[in-house]
């Protein structure tokens, strides 16, 4: 029971984080992404060979990719957590994955609807697709890990 509650809290926290980022107005959202990319590019420029103009140019090139990767990653985490939560109810791996994708898809849709009310932001079907694929990937990884853990536990019991 404690495990279910902890996983539910983690799922809700992840959803809250998604909601928080979707609540940022366009300039704030762009600034968050840009600052993240700038710090990464600056960190990777260990010899300090890039000028500020070059760093900003690289940041502009990477911006769309990083934002898409962020969608995929956060929903991947959500998918992983949802799959673990559904696993606590004794569902088959197939059902866990189906429920995970359905819940993540519905949350992605609601997230885009919510975002359409935020100044400067809009709902994007492409984001729903990326979000759902991220959750699917997180769910698949979760199923693989659960399978491997189950196999390892079986082998360790057989050795005793």
Largest sheet features: none
Strand content: under 5%
The total strand number stands at 0
Number of distinct helices:
5
Envelope shape: globular
The overall pLDDT, averaged over residues, is 90
The N- to C-terminal Cα distance equals: 28 Å
Compute the CA-based radius of gyration. Answer: 19 Å
**Order of helices and strands, N to C?**
HHHHH
Poorly predicted ranges (pLDDT <50, ≥5 residues)?
none
Backbone structural class = mainly alpha
Helix content: over 70%
Describe this structure in words.
It is a single chain. The chain is mostly helical. 84% of the residues lie in helices and 0% in strands. The chain has helices spanning 2-23, 26-44, 52-87, 93-115, 125-159. Helix 2 packs across helix 3. The longest helix is centred in the middle third of the chain and has 36 residues, at 52-87. The two termini are 28 Å apart.
Key descriptive features of the protein:
160 residues; mainly alpha; 5 helices; 0% strand; globular
Summarize the structure.
The protein has 160 residues and is mostly helical.
Map the helices and strands:
Layout: H1 2-23, H2 26-44, H3 52-87, H4 93-115, H5 125-159
């Amino acid at each position: 029971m404690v495990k279910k509650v902890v996983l539910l809290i983690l799922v809700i926290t992840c959803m809250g984080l998604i909601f928080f980022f979707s609540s940022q107005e366009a300039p704030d959202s762009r600034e968050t992404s840009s600052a993240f990319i700038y710090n990464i590019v600056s960190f990777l420029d260990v010899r300090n060979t890039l000028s500020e103009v070059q760093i900003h140019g690289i940041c502009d090139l990477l911006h769309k990719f990083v934002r898409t990767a962020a969608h995929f990653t956060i929903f991947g985490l959500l998918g992983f957590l949802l799959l673990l939560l559904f696993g606590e109810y004794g569902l088959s791996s197939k059902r866990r994955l189906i429920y995970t994708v359905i819940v993540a898809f519905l949350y992605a849709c609601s997230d885009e609807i919510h975002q359409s009310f935020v100044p400067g932001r809009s709902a994007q079907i492409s984001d729903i697709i990326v979000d759902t694929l991220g959750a699917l990937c997180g769910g698949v990884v979760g199923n693989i890990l659960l399978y491997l853990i189950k196999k390892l536990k079986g082998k360790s019991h057989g050795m005793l």
